[in-house]
Amino acid sequence: MVSIKLDSNSVSGKKIIKIPEDSATVLLAMAEEAKKFLTENGFPHIAGTDFHISKTEITESQFDECVNNGYCMAVEDKWDSGPNYPRIDINNYDVKKYADFFTKKQLLPSLREHLKSKFPDQVDIIDGINLDVNLPSEAEWETATRHADPSKGNVNSGKMTESCASDDFSSDGVCDLVGNLAEWVGEVNRDRPLSPSETALVKGSDYSGSNNYPFDIDRGFNLSVTFGYYEVGGRVRVRVLNLLNQ
Questions:
Q1: pLDDT, tens digit, for every residue of 83-113?
Q2: Do 58 and 166 contact (CB within 8 A), yes or no?
Q3: % the chain with pLDDT above 70
């Protein structure tokens, strides 16, 4: 599970950020604080954009928590590599359901609580903040990969998925964008899984080296639901709403 941390300065009696009188300046300060909070809690900001992407692919433990809370549908886990390893065997609808679960249960409440501790006079504005969460679009995913090292798309040792390695981070702090596991991309805006006749876009390269869906300049291809998902996982894109662009 992604650990949500509150800044030690945010507790009662400690340092509080002072609010400038100018409202635009206030919103800008709040947006910067939100960006910092998300980055420090597992959702690095992608430089030059208004969005964040989860540091790792959805892990075994994260998906299991979503299932146990009734948000995600239980699916057979053929690997069960370990709690911090990426979850495979899931489709893009599963990724979206996890994103909805994590946002409602943990990320958004924690972000609001943190901002209220920093900006205690801005409760009404903070209560109006929301998060747009989904899979990254193809363009967003490719933008993020341009800050990653393409050499990290090589075959993993033992041809197995790995937990995040210390040398596999992009300059934005995102792990394993171009290797380890192919990833679903493209926003999901339906409340149902894919039907057998539908397809969805996959990007990246997987741990085995047998499948390399071009990670940057090409579109990859539409992978049929009947393929199986065995080498495909996903991550979450987050955008803060109702504050100035980050």
A1: 788 888 788 888 999 999 999 899 999 999 9
A2: no
A3: 65
Phi and psi at residue 73, to the nearest 5°: -85, 135
Can you say whether the dihedral through the CA atoms of 69, 73, 76, 78 is positive or negative?
Answer: negative
Dump pLDDT digits (tens) for 112-162: 999 999 999 999 999 999 999 999 998 898 888 887 766 554 444 444 455
CA atoms of 188 and 95, how far apart (whole Å): 9
φ, ψ at 234 (rounded to 5°) = -170, 170
Please choose, from the candidates 197, 164, 200, the residue with its C-alpha nearest in 3D space to the C-alpha of residue 179.
164
pTM score of the predicted model: 0.78
Contact, 201 vs 185, CB < 8 A?
A: yes
Integer Cα distance of 85 and 59 in angstroms: 5
> Which domains does the chain show, CATH number per domain?
20-241 (3.90.1580)
Structure tokens at 51: 């969005």
Could you give the CA distance from residue 244 to residue 125 in angstroms, rounded to a whole number?
12
Of 131, 238, 141, 232, nearest to 186 by C-alpha is: 141
Residue 185: per-residue pLDDT: 86
Q: Annotate 138-152 with DSSP letters as a single string.
A: HHHHHHHHTTS-GGG
pLDDT in tens, 9-52: 444 445 555 555 577 788 889 999 999 999 999 999 999 999 99
Give the span between the Cα atoms of 21 and 100, in whole angstroms.
35
Question: How much is the average pLDDT of 165-174?
Answer: 74
**Cβ(44)–Cβ(219) below 8 Å:** no
